[in-house]
Design a protein that fits this description.
- With 296 residues, this protein is α+β, with helices and mostly antiparallel strands.
- The chain folds into two domains: 199 residues, Up-down Bundle (Alpha-lytic protease prodomain-like); 88 residues, Alpha-Beta Plaits (2-Layer Sandwich).
- It has eight helices and four strands; from the N terminus they run H-H-H-H-H-H-H-E-E-H-E-E.
- Helix 8 links the parallel strand 2 and strand 3.
- Helix 4 runs antiparallel to helix 5.
- The longest helix is centred in the middle third of the chain and has 30 residues.
- It is elongated, with a radius of gyration of 25 Å.
- One of its GO terms (biological process) is intracellular zinc ion homeostasis.
- This is Protein p34.
- Keywords: Cell membrane, Membrane, Transmembrane, Transmembrane helix, Transport.
- One of its GO terms (cellular component) is plasma membrane.
């Protein structure tokens, strides 16, 4: 089992524990705001399960029908997570509306707040680990899950403060109003997760910093070639795809050109782990005028 899979399983277990605590807090208080917090935790569990399935599928090696691998499966998981976050927000808005129509006083609010605070602290610690390890492992599913949990922590903090105000002031209408604000924040979080994931599905190029490293590797290791052009990149989960044309002297032997390509490929993989490199070699007299030429 890979490290990414172990972390994904950990997310499921943490999500179940947090869901149980937040459901208990809602049961103790009857708060619509705490119910909204618990509803979001059900999404956490569902999306953690989806992330685990996607991570396992993405880890499959290339085959005849997917020669470039299955790495984009994680992006589908992240998009699904965004959809589920938005769905949870709409459910919370419904509950908030019902609460506004008939505000109810809270039962045992401070005990419920204590339980929710413990659950939120657990989420805070876990979301930091998810984002840090997701970036290190280049896992879109783990990163999306981490950002979702971070939004959950922020909204939970707002819920705790708001429910405390309800308990102190006796203004029952604040409870559903707070739930509505939580829902709007969750909607924004779900939208950001979806947009980020869709960029990966659309073969978005690597960032400018990585692109600078890629160019530097080609220039440093390309001794013996004349120039490189038509550099293109895209990322799919942990994989970074790099392809370009390499111009060599027309008298260069196939073996010599191959050695140059091997050297460049090794330099690229040193700077960009898990890179998949494709180099099209062409002789100088066949090369055309191109923009973005790297003169070696």
């Amino acid at each position: 089992m890979s490290r990414t899979e172990r972390i994904a399983i950990g997310s499921i277990l943490v999500g179940l524990a947090v869901l149980a605590l937040k459901t208990l807090a809602w049961w103790l208080t009857g708060s619509v705001a705490l119910l909204s917090d618990a509803l979001e935790s059900t999404v956490n569990v569902a999306t953690a399960l989806a992330a685990l399935v996607a991570i396992r599928y993405a880890a499959r090696p290339p085959d005849d029908t997917h020669p470039y691998g299955h790495h984009k499966a994680e992006f589908f998981s992240a998009v699904l997570e965004g959809v589920m976050i938005i769905t949870a927000a709409l459910l919370i808005l419904h509950e908030a509306w019902q609460g506004l129509r008939a505000p109810q006083p809270l039962d045992a609010p401070f005990l419920g707040l204590l339980v929710t605070t413990v659950a939120s602290l657990g989420n805070a610690l876990w979301c930091r680990l998810l984002i840090r390890r997701g970036r290190a492992l280049k896992s879109p599913a783990l990163i999306a899950d981490g950002h979702h949990l971070r939004a959950d922590v922020v909204t939970s903090a707002g819920v705790v403060i708001g429910v405390a105000l309800v308990a102190l002031t006796g203004w029952a209408v604040l409870d559903p109003l707070l739930a509505a604000l939580v829902a709007l924040n969750i909607l924004w979080s779900g939208w950001k997760v979806m947009i980020s994931s869709l960029s990966g599905l659309m073969d978005e190029a690597v960032g400018e910093d990585m692109l600078t490293d890629i160019r530097a590797a080609i220039l440093t290791a390309g001794n013996g070639a004349i120039e490189a052009h038509d550099l293109r990149t895209r990322h799919a989960g942990p994989r970074t795809f790099i392809d370009f044309h390499l111009v060599v002297d027309g008298q260069t032997t196939v073996a010599a050109a191959h050695d140059i390509c091997d050297r460049i490929e090794q330099a690229l993989k040193t700077r960009v782990p898990d890179a998949m490199v494709t180099i099209h070699v062409e002789p100088e007299h066949k090369a055309e005028s191109h923009s973005g030429v790297l003169v070696i």
